[in-house]
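Below is a filled-in request sheet from our internal design queue. Each sheet records the structural input a requester submitted and the sequence that came back. We keep these sheets so that new team members can see what a complete request looks like end to end.

REQUESTER: design group, bay 2
PRIORITY: normal
MODE: inverse folding
CHAIN LENGTH: 329
BACKBONE (tokenized):
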């Protein structure tokens, strides 16, 4: 799955840094580059790895200074988020109103819409970058702003799970084929959103006075929705269990969802139907009986599932699967 860009080492030493800058200029994210190794620049990049709706890029660079200014942003801004995982080495980063040092097994979330300065002067830095659109992150920009330029741990908890997953994607790329990409992308986005939700808990606590009550309610609702997505296959997932897991009353949970125009149960049902729709369109699950897929996502009665699916998508699940698999052939 990995597309390898020609090694910079294959280019004469005096031309390597210019080649790297030209490679960066081909992107829609212009920036200013400087290096103490401009006359002997040894770097490589592996990029263009599309897994579902996200892209992975691996880079290995010597001493390097990357700066994206307001002028660069005015010139071109694709309005993307990057989650950078440092695999080895250290970088000093200034992004938004945060300044920090990022080391091995640490993440940092950045936005192409915010000025950025990264300096690595203490040896080679290896890392991976996940590029994704804002629509894949179920958090308002005001909440994500709290995380921009901050270190996010990849050494324990959810961060370690995501770091391990991304590292294995890079080291075992030959084990995956094109049909695996959508499933791998879903896993990556789910883990990434779980990490951001976890980090927002701490960021919100540190910035309590900066958030309005409406913002706190919105963040709580998004965290609850992410919790539901992670537990859709649990038969015991009910409004009562969700409220208990988040230490709120059932009445308050209902109110949070009513503000969005739907009930908790209806939202859970819609998410489960969407998981079923995704699995029915998956060629790798083409031999799995429909009732098994339905039961996997919480529908214990085949007839009830068929009626709910048809009501949501306009066709019976069997017809939907037939059309979806035929389109993928």
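RETURNED SEQUENCE:
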């Amino acid at each position: 799955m990995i597309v390898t860009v020609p090694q910079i080492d294959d280019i004469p030493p005096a031309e390597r840094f210019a080649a790297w800058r030209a490679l960066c200029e081909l992107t829609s994210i212009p920036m200013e580059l400087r290096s103490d190794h401009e006359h002997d620049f040894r770097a490589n990049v592996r990029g263009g790895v599309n897994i579902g709706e996200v892209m992975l890029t691996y880079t290995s660079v010597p001493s390097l200074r990357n700066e994206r200014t307001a002028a660069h942003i005015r010139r071109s801004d694709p309005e993307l988020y990057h989650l950078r995982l440092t695999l080895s080495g250290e970088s000093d980063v200034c992004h938004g109103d945060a300044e920090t040092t990022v080391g091995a097994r640490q993440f940092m979330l950045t936005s192409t819409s915010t000025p950025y300065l990264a300096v690595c002067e203490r040896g080679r830095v290896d890392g991976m970058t996940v590029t994704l659109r804002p629509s894949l992150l179920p958090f308002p920009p005001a909440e994500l702003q709290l995380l921009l330029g901050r270190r996010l741990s990849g050494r324990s908890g959810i961060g370690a799970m995501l770091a391990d997953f991304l590292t294995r994607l890079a080291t075992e790329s030959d084990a995956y084929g094109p049909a695996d990409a959508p499933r791998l992308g879903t896993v990556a986005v789910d883990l990434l959103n779980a990490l951001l939700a976890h980090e927002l808990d701490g960021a919100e606590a540190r910035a309590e006075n900066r958030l309005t009550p409406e913002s706190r309610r919105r963040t709580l609702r998004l965290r609850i929705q992410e919790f539901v997505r992670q537990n859709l296959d649990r038969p015991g997932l009910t409004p009562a269990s969700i409220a208990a897991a988040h230490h709120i009353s059932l009445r308050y949970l209902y109110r949070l969802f009513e503000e969005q125009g739907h009930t908790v149960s209806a939202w859970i049902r819609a998410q489960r139907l969407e998981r079923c729709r995704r699995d029915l369109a998956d060629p790798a699950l083409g031999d799995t009986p429909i009732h098994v897929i339905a039961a996997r996502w919480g529908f214990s009665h085949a007839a009830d599932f068929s009626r709910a699916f048809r009501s949501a998508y306009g066709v019976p699940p069997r017809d939907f699967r037939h059309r979806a698999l035929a389109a993928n052939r």
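SHEET NOTES:
- The chain has twelve helices and twelve strands.
- The first strand starts at residue 3 and ends at 4.
FILED BY: M.R.
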